[in-house]
Design goal:
Structural class: alpha+beta
Distance between the termini: 17 Å
Number of helices: 4
Shape: globular
Order of helices and strands: HEEEEHEEEEEEEHEH
CATH class: Mainly Beta
Number of domains: 1
Radius of gyration: 20 Å
CATH superfamily: Macroglobulin (MG2) domain
Number of strands: 12
Helix content: 10-25%
Oligomer: single chain
CATH topology: Immunoglobulin-like
Largest sheet: 6 strands, mixed
CATH architecture: Sandwich
Length: 201
């Protein structure tokens, strides 16, 4: 029975890692929170969810060829299309909503809850003045048995504020938290799966 248990353990490991990492765009032309273009783009996350953030000028987003998207530092005011690629595959089967708030909590745009069948959700917003904003992703997630407000992913955004970047501490943090949870889970469950069954009399 031991080879069977080993096979099951490796299968679980492969499925877990593929669910976590298969959706992260690799080699895409995307800006990171530091303003450089790298293979991971604008990863933003918390303890529960991780997304790839992209912001486009609304007019440019209508074209056939999209420009390189901005990350959390948007250089100009005006109509903007914000897209969140949902990197947690299970979230793609759950209802999500997005709100854009001014600093201080004033709501300026929101979407209704819906299932993001294509793996991403978008919101149009008119950033009429320069300043600090928040883009907030809400997920109707019964897995955590917690209020949506507590698990919501808050992404700080600075609009037309050169040299005044919002803290990018969320960038990659959720990714490493998720990776740590996977490793801890595997460290706990794999030994139990590999343990030989007790002989019965």
């Amino acid at each position: 029975m031991r080879p069977v248990n080993t096979f099951i353990a490796f299968l679980l490991l492969a499925l877990t890692l593929s669910d976590s990492f298969a959706s992260i765009p690799l080699g895409a032309s995307r800006k990171s929170a530091r303003g450089t273009i790298d293979m991971y783009g604008c990863l933003q996350g918390n303890e529960y969810y991780i997304v790839n953030f992209a912001a486009y000028p609304a007019e440019a987003a209508k074209g056939k060829k999209l420009p390189v998207p901005e990350c959390i530092n948007i250089p100009a005011t005006g109509n903007t299309l914000i897209t969140l690629d949902l990197l947690d595959r299970d979230v793609r089967h759950k209802e999500v909503a997005v709100k854009v708030l001014k600093e201080g909590g004033q709501l300026i745009s929101e979407t209704p809850y819906s299932i993001a069948k294509q793996g991403n959700t978008s919101i149009g917003v008119n950033f009429s003045i320069a300043g600090k904003y928040q883009v907030v992703l809400y997920v109707k997630d019964t897995d955590f048995n917690m209020d949506n407000e507590l698990t919501a992913l808050h992404i700080p955004v600075a609009v037309a504020m050169p040299g005044n970047e919002p803290a990018a501490k969320n960038t990659m943090t959720g990714f490493f938290v998720l990776l740590g949870l996977i490793i801890i889970g595997l460290a706990f469950f794999v030994p139990h799966l590999l343990r030989p069954a007790k002989a019965t009399d």
